[in-house]
UniProtKB/TrEMBL annotation:
It is a multi-pass membrane protein. It is found in: Cell membrane. Its main location: membrane. This is Binding-protein-dependent transport systems inner membrane component. Residues 53-237 form the ABC transmembrane type-1 domain. The chain crosses the membrane at residues 55-76, 88-113, 119-138, 171-195, 215-236. One of its GO terms (biological process) is transmembrane transport. It comes from Clostridium carboxidivorans P7.
């Protein structure tokens, strides 16, 4: 807990300054204060937490799981075969050159307001860091270590499982920490551009009503979701990769 003390102090200071500025401006539809946002969140708790939050979480979960499977698979393929790497790597980079705000409406045209238009947008935002980080992790092993294992009679399968996979684990968790907030953002953006439920959709609806605190309420929830998920991943990383902490 001590290592988060500085972050807590900075966070409290930020919200206190925000509260003071918002009260000075006194224009809640432009910049609502944190206290008004919390009050509005409580007032809107029923639709937020029973309808829109589950919808966003489901999109986030599906998009992240598919990205993990797809991204890890591509990373392994590229690490095993140089020709595949040369063919796939540029395509993976190209997918990140088109803004998701331009693609999300197209996905709505293809899939309508179903969950898959939003899941696809989430996948496009998250699979890139997973693919690249895991690929770099698999390539991070030293050639000397591979040659040593070969002299002990290790096969390519042994080298991959006993050397490359453990070396890639820290990179995998780093990719997760990047992808989780991106998955939440991707879900929210896709809901904003075309959906019938979700926190992004709810925020857009509040904006049309000039309800500043109502617009910020889903954003606060999205931020908390991302922070909680990254915190859980950090705990899992410390539990599963004890050897890195001992080095």
């Amino acid at each position: 807990m001590k290592k988060y003390t500085s972050s807590i102090i900075v966070g409290i200071s930020f919200f206190l300054i925000w509260e003071a500025i918002a009260r000075k401006i006194d224009a809640a539809y432009i910049l609502p204060s944190p206290s008004k946002i919390l009050q509005r969140t409580w007032e809107l708790r029923d639709p937020l937490f029973t309808v829109h939050l589950p919808a966003t979480l489901w999109v986030t979960f599906l998009g992240l799981v598919i990205s993990l499977i797809f991204g890890v698979f591509l990373a392994i393929l590229m690490s095993l075969n140089g020709k595949i790497q040369n063919a796939i790597y540029p395509l993976v980079v190209i997918t990140q050159t088109v803004p998701i705000t331009a693609l999300a409406p197209i996905f709505v045209l293809w899939f309508g307001y179903s969950i898959w238009s939003k899941v696809l947008a989430t996948i496009l935002m998250t699979f890139f860091p997973i693919t690249i980080n895991v690929y770099d992790g698999l390539r991070s092993t030293k050639r000397e270590m591979e040659e040593l294992l070969i002299t002990y009679g290790a096969t390519k399968k042994d080298i991959f499982i006993k050397l490359k996979l453990p070396s890639a684990l820290p990179y995998f968790f780093s990719a997760l920490k990047i992808s989780v907030p991106l998955s939440v953002i991707g879900a929210a953006i896709s809901e904003w551009l075309g959906a019938q439920s979700g926190l992004g959709y709810f925020s857009k609806r509040m904006m049309t009503q000039l309800d500043g605190a109502g617009v910020f309420a889903p954003i606060v929830i999205l931020s908390l979701i991302a922070v909680i998920f990254v915190f859980i991943i950090d705990i899992l990383e410390n539990k599963l990769i004890k050897w890195r902490n001992e080095v």
